[in-house]
From TrEMBL:
One of its GO terms (biological process) is isopentenyl diphosphate biosynthetic process, mevalonate pathway. Its EC number is 4.1.1.33. SUPFAM superfamilies: GHMP Kinase, C-terminal domain (SSF55060), Ribosomal protein S5 domain 2-like (SSF54211). Residues 176-310 form the Mvd1 C-terminal domain. PANTHER family: DIPHOSPHOMEVALONATE DECARBOXYLASE. GO terms for cellular component: cytosol. It comes from the Bacteria. GO terms for molecular function: ATP binding; diphosphomevalonate decarboxylase activity. Belongs to the diphosphomevalonate decarboxylase family. Keywords: ATP-binding, Lipid biosynthesis, Lipid metabolism, Lyase, Nucleotide-binding. This is diphosphomevalonate decarboxylase.
Amino acid sequence: MKSRGRARAYANIALIKYWGKRDEKLVLPMNSSLSLTIDCFYTETEVIFRKDVDRDYFYLNDKLQGKDTTEKVSKFLDLFRKAAGLNLSAVVKSRNYVPTAAGLASSASGFAALAAAANVASGLNLDNRQLSIYARQGSGSAARSIYGGFVEWKKGSSHQDSYAVPIDDAQWDIGIVIVMVNSMEKLISSREGMKRTVDTSPFYKVWVESAEEDLKHIKIAIRNRDFKKTGLIAERNGLKMHAIMLGANPPFCYWEPDSLKVMQIVRQLRREGIYCYFTLDAGPNVKILCRLSESHKIKDRLIQFFDPDQVIIAKPGPGITIL
Ligand code: ADP
Ligand code: DP6
Ligand code: CO
């Protein structure tokens, strides 16, 4: 056994959203989803199983974490310990090169990096498919961050067949412009928000059917490298996800006034013939799917309204890397 592992994983932006679990413990989703891994946000995590500690220690961005966050990491490491027959506690050090809990997929890069590092440290050496199944149990969206480019997370019929698969490397002039409207931690976590939506939104059932339909069509659009269709489907799917939250009880909304401002700018750009499409996850920050070759033009427009530091250009990112 090696006992030490270190890995990097990149965040991903969902184009067809995962919003709701059919099994909360195993993190099995209600619908399949699809994302683009991006190269500008990532997490690096080191896991060391040690004989000289009697509990797990989790440091995030150099700060020792409290009980709740550490417990999530411990439970996740238990999956590896159990499979590897390992009885040691761990010291985990992670750094997010992404704002934490701001709707920019820190849980995706975070748990994918943790899974990849624990895989090495535990000596399990799972393949990427198994690793996706493990990452999924930390955070659903993390299942997709195992891979680069466009990735589908198949909802599956059970624990063993709910995993992500890479479907396209996205190397066809695809880019993402991110507008950081607010990078503070959100008040309602993705976990809590999706549970409330499933439990109380009268629109939930329609969402699931509609998302499966969107997925079918976006996969065809991606296969045909039909950028406009890909973008239009993604934009509509994202709006539908936010609509079902407005129907929840109590209702909630992740948008801020500046999120709407960005949506207006995107629509105006389209009227001018610059094809780009917005999507928001569980937070106020806006991601704009665009032609990479037009990303600078889009940024130039956005910085007429926002600080240049708030606007980030991303390329399609790679899968996990062992460091
Ligand atoms: P986000 O939009 O950033 O994905 P979530 O609400 O889905 O927000 O998840 C945020 C949670 O993910 C954090 O509170 C923490 O528990 C977990 N998390 C974030 N970064 C890491 C990391 N590097 N390692 C392990 N867990 C992480
Ligand atoms: C809106 O994967 O963060 O970003 O599985 O409870 O950890 P948990 O939730 P998480 O949810 C992501 C929600 C989303 C859409 C998506 O990424 O598909
Ligand atoms: Co998340």
